[in-house]
Backbone:
């Protein structure tokens, strides 16, 4: 009845075995606990299944010598991998070699979303080949075709800055033309600056009251044009105080500025024939620290009670503290600064204020030197040209934005590289 | 007539009474906090978004902590908030300063934030220190960082600092942030943005913030924090309210006080002004 | 000669710095890098110059028994203490060192407090001087009030339009006027720089010919 080698199994036991197998199989399929956990410790996460599949490499890779640079650099750009949007690409890795087929070494990496890379630190005049890989993982890379050879070399001129160069040439031409005209004797008109007209009265007031004039040139260094302008005005003020025999106190926040101001005041006194009246101790270095300087100057104001206080130069947050203290001791105050932030404080607290570039114009205004006046006229001419360009640019940009014209052809004028 | 005399006396009030009012207005919220919510504005959101998309453990964020002790109350909350954001996202941070007094303050903010997040010096952050010569420093950073900072602030060569490996110049710095109470942000725009195309954001005092809107509008700054309000907004974004948020209560009260003083002063001025005109 | 050499140096340095902006070639840029390194070194020496000037000035006041020589004495003691700790203490200026402790606990609070005085002065100036005398002054005051309200959370609670109005003021009229002033100031700076480079403006040398 049974085949050789088979043990006879009673029919009932066989049926039980069949049922038990079926039940075990059902349990295996239906019970989650018996399935291997998707993220069980030591197992790779289920989404690795997705990441380890191949991703499309980037395409249309191009390499060019980086333009307008000092050389040693090649710029690559490519079309991103189609799988980038699905999040399958973790980075793009750039490789370079001097040989088209072998010897590629790692050059750099960019995150997805960026489709260009500047490979720098190269040798000029050497042929380089590049390829870019879309990285699915740190070790799984899918390379684009190799491009090259490309040679890096330096440029002698930055074409992106042509607009700046043209602007500078026009500017220099205007300044030189008007300075030359002024030197040739041409009369140049300059409008009245109220704050500077009051300077004579302010000095006279101090002389009558027998009190000193306090001149503050701000907290910036000699490299700041506001400080240069302030020093120019100091020269004119020093001449007046020398003439009227009024004490001039100049606390400085910078040692180099102090050295220059001492020289300026000394020469001003000598120019009006009063060199013996110059007191070096009245032009002194206080401190560089902002609020220590404020504390020192406030102390001078409260103790000396100057009749006139002049604030000329670059100021920061200390402007209001200084001006309020000056107002509290009853001084006439004239301010001039190009620090736009501080202008509101000076305007509210001082009797007269020179706004922005009126400070730069002050030295020309006070001295009436033809050369300085010529420079001022040149500046104003350029400002007029800039104003016209702005209006034209605004109109063109508006027309381009509304589709009346195809492109904003004025835009390259304003962009530098 | 009595009313006008009263206003006349108000106009002549000793300024020390006003100082006292200001003192009380600032201190009162310390004991009775208002806890007002801060709404984030777009310049702050822009800066937050730029920091948020920086890659982790890769090219560093360069922070130029350029403020002095005077502007510390407004600017330190900003630096702490940004550092916390960067460290939260595991962004490497390199800190430098262009102001001599900023050295101690930059170090203090950096070490405080690094300790909070358990960051390791040399791997997650580095302190480059101070160098004089604002424009020269920034221009040189665009050529080679090691021309300016061959060593970090503690004398370790940059070549021995792991996180500075491969960081040569602005090409390897995705974002630079300057926090300053002076014109450092303008210097960064003139000498980093324009010549090198470096992405720069700025944190400045409230009074200076209005000056930088043109740069923000032109895209020369990618983000801007203005004063304690800017710091409070950034703290709200990183969900870590600190000094900035606490300061908002006092700032609210003091602004109300100043508005009230302006109104009272003008009313008094006009009332007494009319009286003088009638008398004459 | 005393004036000619500085003028020549100024001209050469100014023209080179302007020209290098347009020439990216390493022949020019390498020189520019060296030039910048020299500049940083010179500026570092300016700190030394400042320290020497400070010591000279205050020592002079103490020696001549000037009225406020007490302040000079405090200044010199503070300077010498910080220099001493910074240079000669083993910890130098590292966190926790005496230098750092003095800086964090003396200089920082003092300077922060001085800056904080601004709040008092602003309030005093607001009461004393912010008057609606003219139409322009009235517009200024209205704008200032809106911005002051809009920059604090309380303003948002008062009316939802206040922050929107604040933003408009900052991003439209403020930005426009600032741009105008900045363009003017920028051109003024360029003109002054040009005059300095060409030797027309000589105030930086101390006086005129």
Residues:
């Amino acid at each position: 009845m049974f085949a050789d080698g088979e043990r006879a199994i009673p029919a009932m036991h066989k049926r039980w075995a069949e049922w038990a197998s079926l039940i075990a199989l059902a349990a295996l399929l239906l019970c989650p606990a018996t399935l291997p956990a998707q993220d069980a410790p030591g197992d790779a996460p289920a989404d690795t299944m997705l990441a380890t599949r191949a991703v499309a490499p980037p395409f249309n890779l191009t390499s060019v010598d980086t333009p307008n640079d000092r050389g040693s650099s090649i710029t690559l750009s490519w079309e991103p991998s189609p799988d980038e949007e699905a999040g399958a690409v973790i980075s793009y890795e750039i490789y370079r070699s001097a040989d088209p087929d072998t010897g590629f070494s790692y050059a750099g990496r960019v995150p997805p979303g960026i489709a260009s890379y500047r490979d720098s630190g190269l040798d000029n005049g050497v042929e380089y080949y590049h390829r870019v890989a879309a990285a699915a993982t740190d070790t799984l890379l899918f390379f684009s075709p190799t491009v090259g050879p490309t040679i890096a070399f330096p440029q002698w001129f930055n074409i992106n800055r042509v607009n700046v160069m043209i602007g500078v040439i026009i500017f220099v031409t205007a300044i030189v033309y008007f300075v030359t005209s002024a030197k040739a004797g041409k009369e140049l008109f300059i409008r009245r600056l109220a704050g500077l007209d009051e300077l004579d009265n302010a000095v006279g007031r101090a002389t009558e009251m027998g009190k000193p004039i306090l001149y503050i040139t701000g907290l910036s260094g000699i490299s700041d044009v506001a400080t240069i302008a302030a020093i120019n005005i100091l020269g004119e003020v020093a001449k007046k105080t020398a003439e009227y025999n009024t004490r001039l106190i100049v606390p400085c926040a910078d040692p180099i500025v102090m050295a220059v101001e001492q020289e300026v005041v000394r020469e001003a006194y000598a120019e009006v024939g009063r060199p013996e009246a110059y007191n070096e101790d009245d032009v002194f270095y206080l401190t560089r620290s902002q609020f220590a300087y404020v504390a020192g100057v406030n102390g001078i104001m409260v103790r000396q009670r100057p009749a006139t206080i002049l604030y000329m130069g670059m100021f920061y947050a200390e402007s209001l503290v200084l001006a309020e203290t000056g107002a509290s001791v009853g001084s006439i105050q004239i301010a001039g600064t190009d620090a736009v932030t501080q202008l509101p404080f000076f305007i509210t607290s001082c009797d007269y204020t020179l706004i922005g570039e009126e400070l730069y114009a002050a030295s020309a205004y006070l001295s009436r030197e033809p050369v300085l006046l010529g420079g001022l006229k040149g500046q104003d001419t350029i400002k007029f040209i800039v104003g016209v360009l702005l209006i034209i640019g605004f109109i063109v940009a508006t027309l381009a934005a509304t589709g009346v014209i195809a492109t904003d052809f004025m835009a390259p004028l304003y962009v530098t590289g | 007539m009595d009313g006008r005399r009263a206003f006349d006396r108000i106009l002549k009030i000793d300024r020390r009474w006003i100082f006292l009012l200001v003192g009380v207005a600032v201190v009162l919220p310390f004991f009775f906090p208002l806890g007002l919510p801060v709404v984030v504005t777009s310049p702050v959101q822009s800066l937050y978004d730029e920091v948020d998309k920086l890659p982790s453990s890769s090219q560093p964020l360069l922070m130029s902590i350029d403020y002095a002790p005077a502007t510390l109350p407004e600017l330190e909350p900003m630096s702490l908030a940004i550092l916390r954001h960067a460290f939260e996202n595991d962004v490497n941070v390199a800190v430098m300063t262009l102001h001599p007094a900023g050295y101690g303050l930059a170090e203090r903010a950096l070490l405080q934030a690094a300790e909070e997040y358990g960051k390791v010096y040399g791997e997650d952050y580095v302190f480059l220190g101070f160098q004089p010569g604002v424009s020269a420093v920034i221009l040189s950073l665009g050529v080679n960082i090691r021309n300016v900072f061959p060593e970090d602030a503690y004398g370790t060569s940059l070549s021995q600092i792991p996180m500075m490996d491969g960081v040569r110049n602005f090409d390897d710095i995705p974002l630079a942030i300057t926090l300053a109470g002076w014109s450092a942000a303008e210097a960064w725009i003139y000498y980093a943005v324009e010549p090198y195309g470096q992405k720069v954001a700025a944190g400045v005092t409230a009074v200076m913030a209005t000056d930088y809107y043109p740069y923000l509008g032109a895209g020369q700054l990618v983000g801007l924090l203005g004063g304690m309000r800017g710091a409070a907004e950034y703290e709200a974004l990183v969900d870590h309210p600190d000094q900035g948020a606490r300061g908002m209560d006092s700032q609210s009260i003091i602004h109300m006080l100043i508005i009230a003083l302006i109104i009272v002063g003008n009313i008094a001025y006009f009332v007494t002004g009319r009286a003088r005109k009638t008398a004459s | 000669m005393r004036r000619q050499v500085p003028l020549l140096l100024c001209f050469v340095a100014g023209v080179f710095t302007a020209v290098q902006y347009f020439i990216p070639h390493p022949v020019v840029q390498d020189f520019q890098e060296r030039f910048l390194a020299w500049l940083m070194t010179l500026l570092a020496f300016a700190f030394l110059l400042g320290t020497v000037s400070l010591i000279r000035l205050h020592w002079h006041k103490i020696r001549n028994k000037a009225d406020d020589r007490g302040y000079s004495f405090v200044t010199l003691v503070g300077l010498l203490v910080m220099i001493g700790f910074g240079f000669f203490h083993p910890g130098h200026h590292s966190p926790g060192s005496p230098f750092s402790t003095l800086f964090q606990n003396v200089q920082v609070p003092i300077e922060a407090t001085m800056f904080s005085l601004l709040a008092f002065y602003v309030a005093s100036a607001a009461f004393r001087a912010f008057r609606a005398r003219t139409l322009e002054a009235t517009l200024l005051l209205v704008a200032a009030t809106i911005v002051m309200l809009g920059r604090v959370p309380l303003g948002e609670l008062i009316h939802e339009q206040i922050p929107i109005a604040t933003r408009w003021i900052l991003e439209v009229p403020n930005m426009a006027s600032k741009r105008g002033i900045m363009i003017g100031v920028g051109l003024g700076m360029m003109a002054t720089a040009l005059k300095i480079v060409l030797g027309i403006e000589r105030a930086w040398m101390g006086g005129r010919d």
Chain B has a mean pLDDT of 91.
